Amino acid sequence: MTSPNTIVAIDGPAGAGKSTVAKALAVALELEYLDTGAMYRAVTLAAMESGLALDGADIVGLAESCDLSVENGRTMLGGRDVSSEIRGVAVTAAVSTVAANSGVREVMRRRQRAWGDSRGGGVIEGRDIGTVVFPDALLKIYLTASARVRAERRVAEVGGDVDEMERAISERDHKDSTRADSPLSTSTDSVVVDTSGRTIDDVVRQIKNIVDSRRSSVRK
Ligand code: DC
Hints:
By secondary structure, the protein is an alpha/beta fold. The protein has two domains: 1-32 and 122-220, P-loop containing nucleotide triphosphate hydrolases (Rossmann fold); 37-120, Rossmann fold. Helices cover 54% and strands 15% of the residues. It contains nine helices and eight strands. Strands 2-6-1-7-8 form a five-stranded parallel β-sheet, with helices on both faces. Strands 3-4-5 form a three-stranded antiparallel β-sheet, covered by helices on one side. Helix 3 runs parallel beside helix 5 and helix 7 (147-158) crosses helix 8 (162-178). The protein is globular, with a radius of gyration of 17 Å. The two termini are 22 Å apart. The relative contact order is 0.21. Bound molecules: 2'-deoxycytidine-5'-monophosphate (DC). 2'-deoxycytidine-5'-monophosphate is lined by residues 14, 36-37, 40-41, 95-96, 99, 126-129, 176.
């Protein structure tokens, strides 16, 4: 059994900067990084390719049996690199339906815990990592930013209209935070970090400082 002390959970809404911060933090802490959103996206792609109903029961068996791995920032499905495909419009539009399926979530959680156990910890990014998957994590960060700032960042990356993007982001937030199974939320023991108007370096430094001080108080 892995010591839960080495898990750093980074949860929060889309566009808060979780991936960028989690990757940089993993390098700074010399830990591995896991993007759990990529796992839900890969199962969604596998279901679409198999022609399975996204809200049906068969998708749970597919989540269980599919040959899925997320290593060094690449997502592999059946030996194929699907890292770009899972970020496409079709998967992005469908993934929250798959992520709302309790059976799929149970399989994903099991896979995420196995990933952490086999590596002795890591920086793990998602929506329910501190609240459900690793409730004993050394540190739980809830990373957020205003919907406006998140929309501006997304438009800078992919283009489009900021007002429209803000509406789409708010809609997705609502869906992720009101679903019945493990909705996106803070927990009483999470540290809320708002990235609006802050640099990545500044945010990473702040979180690393908290990890360092927790690690040293665990050792005492
Ligand atoms: O972080 P992302 O946009 O790649 O996540 C894709 C979807 O998966 C999004 O709808 C939220 C969901 N998700 C989840 O429910 N639980 C996680 N641990 C990670 C992602």
